[in-house]
Amino acid sequence: MKIYKQPLLWLISASLILLGCSGDPNAEANKLYSKASLILNDSKRTKDNYSEIFTDYQQAKTLIDEMLLDYPSSNTTVALMSEDIKISGLTLTEFRQMEESLKSLSEAEIDPLATAIVLARNIGIDSLYANYLAEIAVNYKSLDDTEKAFKLLQEAAQVAGKSEENFALRTVSVAFAKLGDFTRAIELLDSSNIPKAIREDWLSDISAQYADKNRIEEAIELTSKISSRDSRVSSWIKIGSSLLTAGNTDLAINFFRTALKENEPLGTQWIADHNKQKIAIRYSESFKFNESIEIIQSIEDKPSRDITLREVAANLAKNGQFGKGIELYNRIESVYERALTLTKIADAHIDIGEKREGVKLLEQALKNAESISDFLYQSFVLSEIVKTLSRADELNLALEIVNKIKIIKYEHVDAALKVDAALKNIVVEYSNVKQFEVAERIVASINDPRQRMFAFASIANAYSDIGNNELAQTYLTKAFYNLKLIDSATTHQIEGLVYLSERYKEMNLELTDSDNLILREITSNVVPVKDLWE
């Protein structure tokens, strides 16, 4: 917004006061106009944040509204309405238009979600703007602010409609479904020009939302309208997965069986195998292990088969069937998947107090990990091993592996961000087991401010779990400080703001003055206060 200065405004305001006389409508109107102008002029000179500027604006607006209401025929009112004079350089129209933007900017200085909205609106790419606005809207729904959520979604829908990128439309449509407005969700897809195949794939996401809300008949009806077999199979799997998560295992199995029946034959073997992978894993989560293993036999794609073997082996171990889990492990070809599988089986041993057996498997997993040629995969597997060791109280071995991860980071600078993510995951695990000193030591090795933000937030969450709100607040403030350091040219600050907003809600904590100062700084970096008056 560009606002143009009126150099003679002070002289005009002073003259109007001198010319006015008590009881005269023109004089009274002049006084109100002059007071409003003086308030805004003072705000220009002395205020450097939107919260204070908005307060001044509201005071000025009250005076102008009073003038317009009480003295509609005064010379000043007529001149202002005809734009012959301005309010501190603003026409009456510009002055009124300023309210909504100032309100949103002032809210951004005290509320992380409001800050995220400002950043989304100024991101410069319509698809990303709409995408993040839709995600933020869902967060407002979780805060029981349904009106705000739908208002943001309407804005997101308008922006997505102008974008050439389709993915934003999908996010907005699913967001409407999450908020319970399935009619609008489907209308949005029907009114778009997206290809039929893509539209039907997205309808499967809406079917899953029906299932999440236990509206099974409507989920079935919508899925039945999908002509593409690939998308229809995907929809049956999503519905079954929602039911399984809700604890309705028997009904979930029926949908998995329907999906499996329609899955053969498909035009692309990889798609068929990928669907089988999802179904087999879901079967194993429902303790239908024989059916899972039978499906595995028919998977031709090696990566899909290894991933399925890994997850089914892990679920067997969780069910106490360690021998069968190891049998499936022995059928895995990828050294990466073998290492992860042993780590998951070890985790199941540790869960039931069999730490010695778990550590033995972790040592074997470590040998597998050391033979992984891709250093990114290797660092991830090593981080998973350390996370599991944290629960086995094997600190020395865990820290030894952490040092291996650090070496990978320093030897492969181009992979530093992903290695920092692995280190963050370790911090989360040590926070969960309340080994705060170890968690702090590992955070010190993380350079990426985004991952440090996540790490500090996980420590805060762990302190909150044990009722230490003072330290929880301290570490959330550390997370906020690192949020400020994230490159504002990326979308990561928006994601961080939404994430930290959720953490504050979960921990039932209020933002500190320091947090608010950071929000103020982030807001003014995106929409500089000085630009308001230029």
Automatic annotation (TrEMBL):
The protein depicted here goes by the name Tetratricopeptide repeat protein
Q: Which Gene3D superfamilies match?
A: Tetratricopeptide repeat domain
Which species?
Pseudidiomarina maritima
**InterPro entries assigned to the protein according to its UniProt record, in alphabetical order:** TPR-like_helical_dom_sf, TPR_rpt
> Membrane-crossing residues?
none
PROSITE patterns per UniProt: PROKAR_LIPOPROTEIN, TPR
Q: Does the keyword Signal apply?
A: yes
Q: What Pfam families does the entry give?
A: TPR_8
Please state the span of the N-terminal signal peptide per the UniProt entry.
1-27
Each TPR repeat, start to end: 233-266
Keywords (alphabetical) are: Signal, TPR repeat
